[in-house]
Amino acid sequence: MKIFLRIYIFSAIYLVIISCEPNRFSQNNPVVFSKSNKIVGKPSLLIPIHSQGNVNLLVIDTLLIVQRREEPFFQVYSTISSKSVGSFGKLGDGPSEFRSPYLSNQVGYNQEGVPVITVYDHSLYKTTQASILQFIEDSEHIQGEKLDIGSDLLQHFYFQNEDFLWATIENGGRFKRYDFRKGESKIIPYIPKPDFIIEEELLYPIYRSAVAVNETKKLVIAAPIKLGQIDFFDLDGNYLRSTYFESSDLLKNIITNSDQLKSLWESKMYVVDLTAKEEYIYCLSYDNPYGQSRNPDIKTNSKILVFDWAGNPVKEFILNDGRFVQSFAVDEINNTIYAYCPNEKENNLVIYKLD
Fold first, then answer.
1. Cβ-contact 276, 264 below 8 angstroms
2. What is the pTM assigned to this prediction?
3. Which tens digits make up the pLDDT trace of 23-60?
4. Per-residue burial over 109-147, b = 16 or more CB atoms within 10 Å of its CB, e = otherwise
């Protein structure tokens, strides 16, 4: 009897703790970063990009991959020496050729322990997965794979393996998950919902998300661009929890009391890009309207917000130089952030040290 009583008391205490925990991560009570550093970047003198348009960056181990809009689409550099390791990606429809490539943040390793990357081509509607060395040394024999998702029009590609595809499609909820083994698909709606009504036409521009998938932890993290939060899902698309780092009161006031579509442009943008590592999640948050962030005549400081995989705030880095950062990558080995800054006059790659 005493044993059952102890179990009951322990269970009751545990339930009280669990029930109290969401109050730390609520829309009306956002988390606070106890550690905050201001950092200033310097243009890279050794790694030139000189590109305009969509540029994506990815760091794997000691390699920096730069995806540009010009040929060769991909350039690879050593993060130790900053020297070029190689390049790949020509314009075309053949093996290892691309029309509109997108370097995803999906990272894996082959049996030899060599990093494997995933490239999605918006124009050719195909994914190409191979090791970096194979792309550089033997790209002519790399065949991409057409996405088989029926008549769906894919807007954003996030992740694909042998089991499933995680993406956003046109008029298909916040996300759609395709189960290749079962031949089924699942729409993940626009969740979690805030404490105010969002008209249907505003759902996509508010919930458009930066996403990362962690197969090891069996988690998907998604950050809606107009809401100051990060949301966690399991690999089956079930919503788990959220961490709120900014109140949604400002957005609520804008879309409730003004011309919604016009005013939405003036509302703040939060996480526009993120990269996930083994222990931490790094989020690039503008914390300003897009027009102000992009305007070279207006100084706005973006932030790098760091969370652990439980959603706890770890640290924030304020990019204290007013630069507009479009995309970024994190090198944990050298405590470095590589940032693509299209407004830079000489070199678009800016380096921030996290020391």
1. no
2. 0.90
3. 345 777 899 999 999 999 999 999 988 777 789 999 99
4. eeeeeebbbbbbbbebbbbbbbbbbbbeeebeebebeeb
**Which residues have C-beta within 8 Å of that of residue 297, sequence separation ≥ 6?**
none
Which amino acid appears at position 311 of this protein? G
Q: Is 180 buried (19+), middle (13-18) or exposed (0-12) by CB count in 10 A?
A: middle
Domains and CATH numbers, the chain: 30-353 (2.120.10.30)
Token code pair at residue 30? 């956002």
Query: Whole-angstrom distance between the N-terminal and C-terminal Cα of the chain?
Result: 56
- Which residues lie closer than 8 Å to 2 by C-beta, 6 or more apart? none
162, two tokens: 């042998």
Q: Report d(CA 90, CA 101) in Å as an integer.
A: 10
| pLDDT digit string, tens, across residues 8-17 | 344 443 333 4
